[in-house]
Every structure is written in structure tokens, then in C-alpha cells.
Amino acid sequence: MATAVMTTLDPNSRSAARGMSDLTIRNLFIIPTIVFLIVFNIFPLLYSLGYSFTDFRASSPAPANFVGLQNYRELLNDPFIWSNFAITAKYVIVSVVGQVIVGFGVALLLNRDIPLKGLLTTLLLLPMMLSMAVVGLFWKLLYDPSFGIINYTLGLASFEWLSNPDMALYAVAITDIWMWSPFVMLLSLAGLSAVPKHLYEAAAIDRAGSFYTFFRITLPLVAPILMIAIIFRTMEAFKTFDLAYILTSQPTTEVISIRLYKMAFQEWQTGRSCALAYIVLIMILAITNIYVKYLNKVKER
Amino acid sequence: MAAVTTSTERSLNKLAIVGVLIVTVIFLAPIYWIASTAFKPRNLATTIPPTVMFQPEISPFVKLFTKRSQLRTAPTPEQYAAAPWWERLVFDGGEKVVRSGRGEVQWSGYPSRFMNSLIVAITSTVLAVGMGTFTAYGFSRFKVKGEADLLFFILSTRMLPPVVVAIPMFLMYRVVGLNDTHWGLIILYTAFNLSFSVWLMKGFMDEIPKEYEEAALVDGYTRMEAFFKIVLPEAATGIAATAVFCFITAWNEYAFALIMTNRRAQTAPPFIPSQVGSGLPDWTVIAAGTFLFLLPVAIFTFLLRNHLLRGMSFGAIRK
């Protein structure tokens, strides 16, 4: 990769009489970053690819034995791992759908003549800027069955949110929706404000109903930006670790990142966890690919 | 939106205002609650029903910064009179501040975690934004073979789940002795923020007209001089916005810090939740720690408000 950068010369480049040539400067500016990322991201991943074919345990001095594809075979045949993926999928669906409904809904409300719109928008964006770990911590206080303000406000006497296995995943998703609906709202607002006003005026002249206007004008034009929000949140929700790890320790909330963390750093099944990390990695790269395609699509407009 | 003329439109607008206000109250309530708990006396933090009106105090912050032990007997009037004002607040809560044999106040774990967070976040931000600005300029102004692929590669490193990267990094750090060090975290956060910084800065660089530097080159500047004297000042706002985003990301990061540090270099995000532990936690102290930790981010969010869209979309959506 780095060599490809070095060997291409821009034929139109201005070769300055003094100072470094553009080619040198370009390489000087770009190559360190590429090298840094290769050394600290790609090299470690190759390292763990190697370990994924072994029975290595970082907690024991025993040398790693090559076991071939055994780790991958066992993981893919392990019903517990599949249940972790199923929990993750459920979490992704609940939290992303929730964020889109709340975020897009609030954006529609805000896309009018609202006094103090700028201030209110900034205030609404605050949750997504906070640390997920610390948010998880203080939502524990809010969810407390006896003195939490959520039960008090909703009039639920000592309802168990986090220690109820059936409810815990939804509780984590609700916190995630609180945190990240603002993100969907932010992107939706950008999409909504870019809809040309004359389209609405034309629709009004044609006496089009608000239902028709929404589904035929607003939604199609906001869709590409909304897609970016949805793909990005899907990817982030798929990777989720902090929030679920801090809020509860229920087996029903053990999303794939938590399983991976426990396998690697509590059970010290290093080789196996490297294999699982690769399975997760391939899934993430697939979503990233789709995401970048959409990013570039919207950029070109 | 079409001009608000009809009466239905006007009443719809009123409804929207009411809706927005309700949503804002609901969204801010959790933040208000943790912030207000930081100023409550301990006995009012976990009452049923929850206490909304109270006399704010700052004793939670005194407790946050000091090591304390339970008082067996109430302090004598002399002890009380001799104590500094902040220690009296702790006495009132039935505790005393732990002192060393020489009478020095023993600090809690919080201030050192807070300092670690500052050191790691600031250093990694400087590195990521510095390298990112150069690289973004390179991509913005010169032809690079396979530019789209390289940019995808750069972005994809950002998307990797922290736990996936942490497993090999932990093993490698163990070999070179970087576990539980500031540099260990700084390297990880720099790598993590670098891709973001390149993408965001490239957007800002693309917006600076090429003609500026071309004019400077005609005037006899070298490319380097043109970059430092013309481009960088033009990019100052973009650099500042990128830096604030990188700082917030590093400041908030949890998974790497949890795995790579345990005491010496531990940052605040893994430390604050670990205070809950077992038994009955003192929520006022936890809230005070949370409040101080979230405050910089809240301030930065206001400073960044016009760049949030751009930052959160990796520079793709500019408006």
C-alpha cells in the first residue's frame, strides 16, 4: 500500500525550484499515517489471526499449539455463541428502530418555526456526547427499583428493570435510545432542511394532503441521510459493549462484545477469542463497506 | 416550510412547540438528576419518593477528593473548631478525613484518574489531529493512486470494535511493557482518532480554495511555506473542531481503558463505575465524580454546536 503511494507521480505537479517536490511532500504527509495505522491496527490483527489457529491461553506459560480451524469450527457450532449473536441482533433492532422513530419524530417537530430552536437542538444533542460508561452508571440510579425516578415517574412500584432477565435487554436499549436518538435527529434535521421549499408550495397548491406530502416528498428526499444514520447506528449497536456491560450482568444481555471480552480477559481462552474476534470483524467490515458507499453517495449530491 | 398562514398551520406549530418542550424536558431529566444528586446531602440521595427540592451542598465533592473513614464518636467541639471548613462538611456526614501520620490529607483515587484522563486525552488529540491535518492536506491536494481504497482503509480502522483490537494489543503491550501506562492508551486513542481526524480534516481542506496556495507559489513560496502560512491559518476552525471531537472521544473511551489499565494509568471512565462496588454506594459521591467528568464534555458540546453534524457524519454532511 505504502509503495503504491510512493511510485505514482502526479504529471501535473508543480516542481518547485527550491524546497521539496510535491511528491516528497505528499509522501511525507500521507505515509506516516498509513504506517501508524498499519503498525497499530493491521499488524495486531495479523498477530491475532495467527493466534486464532492455536489453543493459546495468555494466562498460562504453555506454548501455543497449532489447532488449525478447530476454534472457528467449534465457535460456529456453539449454540451459546449463536444465542449471543441472537441477543445482539435483538438489541440492534430494538434500539435502532427506537432511535429512528424518536429521532426522526423529534426532527419533524423541530423542523418548524420553533422559538429558541438552536438552543433546544443543542440541549437535545447533549446525551450523545457523553461517555457511554458513565451514562450506564447513572442510568443504574434512575432504574433503581425502589428509589429510581423512572419507576416513580411512571408509577411503577418496585418494577425490576435490570435484574429481570426478560426486561434487562430492553432497559439497555431504552438507555441507548435516549443517548442516540439525538444522532438520528441531527442527521434527519439536515435532510429535512435540504428539502426544497418549492416542492411543499407546489404540493400545497395541488391541495395534496399532509399524508401524501410526507410520503411522496419528505420521506424520499430525507431517505439517503436517514440511511446513513441507520447504518451507522446499526454498526455501533452491533459493537455495543460499555452500556450493557455496566448496566447489567444478566445472561440475557450478553451481547457478542461482552462474550468476546469475557472469553479473552476473564476465561483467558486467547486463541478461541481471537477466532471469535475475526468472525465479528468480518461482519463489521461488511457493514462498514455499505456505510462508506452511502457516505460517498450523499457526498456527491 | 411554506409560510405559516392558515390557522391550522398555526395551531400545528403551537402543538410542535409543546411537543419539543416535553421532549427536551424528558431528555434532560436524566442529566439534571445526576447533576442535582451531586449537590445533595447523602440522606436525601436515595429517598422514596425522590427528593426534588433540597438545600444544595458541596460535601459530595469534598468526599469525592478525600479518603474518609467512619467516625466512631462525634468530634469534640475543639476538633470541630480546629478543622478546616471543608472537613466540617465531612464531620456532619458522620465521617472523618483520613490523614497520614504527618497530618497530610489522603486523597481518594479520583483526582489521579481525572489527571490520567486529561493526560491521555490531550496527548492523543494533539497527535491524531497533527498527523490527520497533514494527511488530509495530502489527500486533498495531490493525486494519490487508489485514494478511495486508502480512505476506506483509514476509516475502517475506526470501525473496528475496541475489544477486537484490544486482544492482540494487550498481548503485544505485555511483551513491550506498555500495559497500564499512559503511552499505551495514548497510542490506542491516537490510532482510533487518526482516521476520524483524516476524514474530517479532508472535508475542511477541500473547502479551502486551491487558488490561495497557487497564488503563494507564484509569489515564490515553497509548497511547505504555503501550507504553514496560508493553509493552516485558513483551516484553524476545522482543526479546532476536529480536536474537540477527538478529545471527547478519548475522554469518554471505556473498553480500551478497562482492558489496558488497572491502577497507575487508569482513566476516569473505568474508575467511576467501579466505585459502585458492593453494598450501599454513596450516590452523592458517585454523582459528584460523574458531574465533574461530564462537565467539560457539556461545555465542549456548546462550543461545537455548529460542527456537530459534520463531525458525527465523518465530514460527509456539511450543510
Describe the structure in your own words.
The complex is a heterodimer of chains A (301) and B (319). Chain A has helices at 2-7, 22-51, 70-76, 79-110, 117-129, 132-143, 149-154, 168-193, 197-205, 210-239, 242-247, 256-265, 270-300. Chain A is mainly alpha-helical and 301 residues long. Chain A folds into two domains: 21-70, no CATH class; 71-300, MetI-like (MetI-like fold). Chain A starts with a helix and ends with a helix. Mean pLDDT of chain A is 89; it is low at 1-17. Chain B is mostly helical and 319 residues long. Chain B has three domains: 7-37; 67-106, no CATH class; 110-285 and 303-312, MetI-like fold (Orthogonal Bundle). Chain B has a two-stranded antiparallel ribbon. Chain B is globular, with a radius of gyration of 26 Å. The two termini of chain B are 17 Å apart. Classes of the chains: A mainly alpha (301), B mainly alpha (319).
Annotate the secondary structure layout.
The complex is a heterodimer of chains A (301) and B (319).
Chain A lengths: L1 H6 L14 H30 L18 H7 L2 H32 L6 H13 L2 H12 L5 H6 L13 H26 L3 H9 L4 H30 L2 H6 L8 H10 L4 H31 L1
Helix pairs in contact in A: 4-8, 4-10, 5-8, 6-8, 8-10, 10-13, 12-13
Chain B lengths: L6 H31 L4 H4 L13 H7 L2 E3 L6 H6 L2 H8 L2 E3 L12 H32 L5 H13 L2 H15 L5 H26 L2 H9 L4 H12 L1 H17 L2 H6 L7 H7 L8 H21 L4 H5 L7
Antiparallel strand pairs in B: 1-2
Offer a few descriptive terms.
heterodimer, A: 301 residues, mainly alpha, MetI-like fold, 13 helices, B: 319 residues, 3 domains, two-stranded antiparallel ribbon, 16 helices, globular
Brief summary:
The complex is a heterodimer of chains A (301) and B (319). Chain A is mainly α.
For CATH, the homologous superfamily of the largest domain in chain A is named as: MetI-like
> Low-confidence parts of chain B, pLDDT < 50 over ≥5 residues?
none
- Helicity of chain B, as a percent range: 55-70%
> Structural class, judged by helices and strands of chain B?
mainly alpha
Number of domains of chain B: 3
CA(first)-CA(last) distance of chain A: 30 Å
* CATH fold-level label of the largest domain in chain B: MetI-like fold
CATH architecture of the largest domain in chain B: Orthogonal Bundle
- Here the CATH topology of the largest domain in chain A equals MetI-like fold
Average pLDDT score of chain A: 89
Main beta-sheet annotation of chain B: 2 strands, antiparallel
In total, how many beta strands of chain B? 2
